[in-house]
Amino acid sequence: MTAAGFYNPRGEGDGDGSHDPASHAMLYAVGTTYNVSKRTSLFGAVADVHDSANGTFSVFAMPGDSSTPTSPLPGESQTGAYIGMMHVF
Fold it and tell me: Closest Cα to residue 4, out of 29, 25, 24?
């Protein structure tokens, strides 16, 4: 099992084209891997980001100039999850 927490401060003057310079966010993530056999494993993770009043940080790693934006509305939180299975041949 893996767990992590990240604080993302922007600070005055550190803003870019997609984030307010006065915004910040907290991201929490937890994930695990379960070995079903010697060659097969199941995995999954859940992440949640809590934005400040003007923050639009996302749980997805997408460039700010992406044609398919994934950022939430300012001040909103976002949750994402994934699950999968890996088999080594």
Answer: 29
Q: In whole angstroms, what is the distance from residue 68 CA to residue 47 CA?
A: 20
H helix or E strand, kind and range, residue 33: strand 24-35
CA dist 55 and 11 (Å) reads 12
Q: Give the CA distances from residue 85 to residues 35, 52, 88, in Å, rounded to whole numbers and listed in that order.
A: 10, 35, 10
Angle in degrees, CA 55, 4, 6, rounded to 5: 30
pLDDT in tens, 32-68: 999 999 999 999 999 999 888 888 888 877 665 667 7
What's the whole-model pTM score?
Answer: 0.71
